[in-house]
Design brief:
The chain is mostly helical. The chain has 8 helices and no strands.
Amino acid sequence: FGLCSQTIPWAPAIRMDGVNDAKRLGNIHFKKSDYLGALGYYESAMSRLRELADEAALRPPADGPQPVRAMLDDVEERNRTGAAIWNNMAMCHVKLQCWEECVGCCDFALGMEPKNPKALYRKALALFALDEVQEASEIVQWAKTLPSVTQDTKTLAEFEGLQPKHAPKQPLSSNPTVKIAPLPPPIPRTSARPKQAPQTSPREWRSPRSLAPAQ
């Protein structure tokens, strides 16, 4: 994944409860303005979350309404946690002004929660910074129709404050489509993070892959 041409320190492998533990450690580094260190822990949390999803996919199918409900709740919780981690990573890239990487993280968050206000806001912010005015403006326009945005005065004001520097070149679509990327492949457990981004830009990926267990 794009790392803004800088090496992210690889956090120690953390098992089981490590998702929330790694996320918490990432938050600590973020508050210290150590954004690269925070990214390392957030990626550790996401790697563990994908391992949990893979383990759940290998479990035998559940019988009866209660086990199925528990399985769906588990998937929903993983998606909610995953979206929060990707949002945190996006915010690190905002602080580092790595706009392409921020868009990619927001795409992954939106793959889990398509109407997540933070992911929509940060993606639009990054797109404006990249002078992608048309797409950014459509995201803002669409977000302002969501109850999660309109019913929160602070969130709505944040979207209202996102204004393009120049008028869009084409009329805004009345039904814009937010482009979403799939989840990346599992992160290899190595001593050092990759120094270069993949050849394919995250923004070119389209079909989201849920963390839901395989059918």
